[in-house]
Write a structure and sequence with these properties.
- This protein is α/β, with parallel strands linked by helices.
- It is built from 18 helices and 25 strands.
- The protein has 3 domains: about 240 residues, Glutamine Phosphoribosylpyrophosphate, subunit 1, domain 1 (4-Layer Sandwich), CATH 3.60.20; about 180 residues, 3-Layer(aba) Sandwich (Rossmann fold); about 140 residues, Glucose-6-phosphate isomerase like protein, domain 1 (Rossmann fold, 3-Layer(aba) Sandwich), CATH 3.40.50.10490.
- Helix 8 runs parallel beside helix 12 and helix 8 runs antiparallel to helix 16.
- Bound molecules: 5-amino-5-deoxy-1-O-phosphono-D-mannitol.
- 5-amino-5-deoxy-1-O-phosphono-D-mannitol binds next to helix 8.
């Protein structure tokens, strides 16, 4: 939920730290800070608001000369977003930045207060800092190794010790990578922060402690040195920049045909590579937010096409619920980041029960990618805008492929070859939709003043409504709800009044007529109907957009961009900070 970076080398760290924070700002953006050091002099500068505010503040300060530093951008968990609670925190000789949550912070704090430690902030981070400080007797590796035995929860720490010229780091259940440069080395929450400087990096496993100087990186486990493999990132500098687009969100939507092509190329000519889930008798699809909504489309396809019993659940519920695994079950975890705390917990719960897991993930270095029994990677590349777009589209496409493979294996799909051929055209169909983006910009203008909006559909169309509604609300702050079209008249229809925008998604031939009747019901109450369909013959009420009619497996993929563009353009009309909506963070690494 927060972003951390650290530098040690021959340059002043200011430029790297600010640059890195800007690249990580999507992870949290309510306050930020840096700490740089020269011998035993540590200078800490913190600020509420955006990284640009921190930069302004830093530029006004007299910075000490330095070749080492750490920095942090925060999404507040413990304590409000103010300067005192912002990181870095310093206790004794230890200065630290933290991503994650220390769950036993209150217990630890009470004990430390009894020992005479005075805390300034309300954060769990300051407690972790105090614990490391307590164990620090001149050996940083020993102090960190001892301290983490006491910490419950998740953490990625970047640590400076007043009397050491090296940088230290450790992680557990929170992402952290070690970047390897020339006469300088780095720590970062993700590759985007360091790609301008290096493509070489090391992945840390839980509780591996690392010591970095400009020349060396040494990794320890339980106090003993261990060897680590060096990885090379395929990310480019362009991936981490907006290019000519005003926002990452629009850039990422417009990249959808390319990333879809990349993902399809892997499988469509080589369906042997696709995981075959047909031997399972029951599928649990577990995820959060948009990833869950992609899973809801997956459930419809798996049940309808492959005849496999399937349920979806919110990861934060699934992890604590009694689950009766009485059939041969596969748990499918869906996560762009692969770091969502609840989804990780759901995966581990399945593993504890001896249940197979399959993850659909974007970030290859992530915890879920590393721990799931099997993984299918979507090839979205880095997704920087907080609201997911291209990754969600690929999650949907991945379920299309999984369902097609399972239906084929069970000999339930007689048009298999034609569907495969048709799928090859998908990126072109998608381009056609995106070429119409101005149409959706027009809708943004029309609905910018709306207080509420509704999305209605049935079956797989309803699953798409959920995502359309989430996109609109998270980036444009328009209250919106998604309903199964037949459900509205059981109460919610009382909210329909003159001019309320209602988006109707109608693609499923079997139930088209039923949804149409529901549309007419709300239109009679003066709602403004925006229909998105694959059927040109459907009645146009106020607005109608027709996408190519293709196989049921891949049809949802074409409905995705209109929904995302409507959210984007409405937010644009409202003049909002589209890539960083209020209160959100890209990857939710806390419960
Ligand atoms: O990284 P994940 O796919 O696990 O993230 C899941 C949700 O947090 C994410 O999809 C969220 O709903 C986004 N705000 C959607 O745009």
């Amino acid at each position: 939920m927060c972003g951390i970076v650290g530098y040690v080398g021959e340059q002043h760290p200011k430029e790297f730290l600010l640059d890195g924070l800007k690249k990580l700002e999507y992870r949290g953006y309510d306050s930020s800070g840096i700490a740089i050091k020269n011998n035993d002099n540590i200078q800490i500068i913190k600020c509420t608001g955006k990284i640009s505010d921190l930069e302004e503040k830093i530029n006004k300060e007299n910075l000490i000369s330095s070749k080492i530093g750490i920095a942090h951008t925060r999404w507040a968990t413990h304590g409000e977003a103010n300067e005192t609670n912002a990181h870095p925190h310093k206790v004794g000789k230890v200065t630290l930045v933290h991503n994650g949550i220390i769950e036993n912070a209150t217990d630890l704090k009470n004990k430390l207060v009894n020992d005479g430690v005075v805390f300034r902030s309300e954060t769990d981070t300051e407690v972790a800092c105090a614990v490391i400080s307590k164990y620090y007797k001149g050996n940083p590796i020993e102090a960190i190794t001892e301290a983490i035995q006491l910490l419950k929860g998740s953490y990625a720490f970047g640590v400076l010790f007043e009397d050491q010229d090296k940088l230290y780091a450790v992680r557990k259940d929170s992402p952290l990578i070690i970047g390897l440069g020339k006469k300088e080395n780095y720590i970062a929450s993700d590759i985007a922060a360091i790609i301008k400087y290096t493509d070489q990096y090391i992945l840390l496993n839980d509780d591996e402690v690392v010591e970095l100087s400009g020349e060396n990186v040494t990794v320890y486990k339980d106090g003993k040195k261990i060897k680590k493999e060096i990885q090379t990132s395929t990310m480019t500098i362009e991936d981490a920049n907006k290019g000519n687009y005003k926002h990452f969100m629009l850039k990422e939507i417009m990249e959808e045909p390319i990333v879809l092509q990349r993902t399809l190329n892997k499988y469509i000519n080589n369906m042997d590579q696709m995981v075959d889930i047909s031997p399972y008798e029951e599928i649990h699809i577990v995820a959060c937010g948009s990833a869950l909504y992609a899973g809801m489309i997956g459930k419809c396809l798996l049940e309808e096409k492959a005849n496999i019993k399937c349920m979806t659940d919110v990861a934060s519920e699934y992890r604590y619920k009694k689950i009766i695994y009485d059939r041969k079950t596969l748990v499918i975890l869906v996560s762009q980041s692969g770091e969502t705390a609840d989804t990780i917990a759901a995966m581990r719960k399945a593993h504890e029960e001896g249940i197979d897991t399959l993850a659909i993930v974007n970030v290859k270095t992530s915890t879920i990618a590393r721990e799931a029994k099997q993984t299918l990677f979507i090839e979205a590349g880095p997704e920087i805008a907080v609201a997911t777009t291209k990754a969600y589209l690929l999650q949907v496409a991945m379920f299309s492929l999984i369902a097609l493979k399972a239906a084929h294996s069970k000999k339930l799909e007689k048009n298999y070859k034609e569907i495969i051929e048709e799928a090859k055209q998908l990126p072109d169909y998608l381009r056609k939709v995106l070429n119409d983006k101005d149409v959706f910009a027009g809708i943004g203008k029309e609905i910018k003043g709306a207080r509420d909006a509704f999305y209605i559909g049935r079956g797989v169309d309803y699953a798409m409504c959920e995502e359309g509604s989430l996109k609109l609300k998270e980036v444009s702050y328009t209250h919106s709800d998604a309903y199964q079209a037949g459900e509205l008249k059981h109460g919610t229809i009382s909210l329909i009044e003159d001019g309320v925008p209602v988006f109707a998604i109608i693609t499923d031939d079997k139930i088209k007529d039923k949804t149409e009747s529901n549309v007419i019901e709300v239109e009679s109450r003066k709602a403004k109907i925006y229909t998105i369909t694959n059927d040109a013959s459907i009645m146009n009420h106020h607005f109608k957009y027709v996408v190519e009619k293709i196989s049921d497996y891949f049809q949802p993929v074409l409905i995705v961009p209109p929904l995302q563009l409507i959210g984007y353009y409405t937010a644009l009309e409202r003049g909002l900070d589209i890539d960083k909506p209020r209160n959100l963070a890209k990857s939710v690494t806390v419960e």
